[in-house]
Amino acid sequence: MKDGQGAAITRQPSLILYAYDVTTGVVVDIGDRLNIVPVIDGYVVESAICSIPYGATQVREALRTTLCSNNKGLYSFQSPIEKLILRYVLEQTSYVPEDYSQEEKTSKEVNVSLDKFDPTPGMPTKFSIDNSRFLCTEGLFRPKKWGLDTKGLHQLVHEAVQMSPIDSRRTLYRNIYLAGGASLMPGLAEKLEQELAAIVPNSIHTQVHISPWRYNAAYLGAQIVASASTFSDSCVSLENLPTFLAHLQSSCF
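Structure tokens predicted for Actin:
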């Protein structure tokens, strides 16, 4: 509402889909947590939600462990500035290979300059990174590489679709939408699409959609909702807030 005397509540997966200009699809939101949420015509399929406490944190930790070993412990990546360096190295070099085994055989070392961080005397001004730049991301599809006993991203997406209404599954398979900071890694969408295609029948088409603004997809979706002409009608005013909360409490408990 324009006067700030009301508010509306919308589920984040629905907002992400609004940013993609659709109302049906599987939202794969990868941040510090992994959330896989099927949405059909704007309604979240509650029974099919998958939420697991791993994602970008494990990617960073896998890269940190390798960098500490390869750079003789000069950086521990524990201080605030070192954590910024780790994030910078991750964003500059990490990717998801289409064929992990082949990439291991053909990949070459790359150097990352740290001059912009003004390293102190005696500290290295660059990192040499080998296959650790894609080894750290492979855990998304092969969690055992992170020491986790759970299913890979493609398997979790497949299960979420299978737990959705049967008449919507084909539509969901071809409408998978990425969001979250970790979704920005190059090659992730292609790898997910490839791995999904390998476990579903040949008659089913799988497609993973990405956009350059997927990092802020939920925020952009909220802007779309707030700019709609019917937004004021969906808001709860301060006057009606006690009644709304009472109704919400009675419907949840």
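DSSP finds eleven helices and ten strands in the chain.
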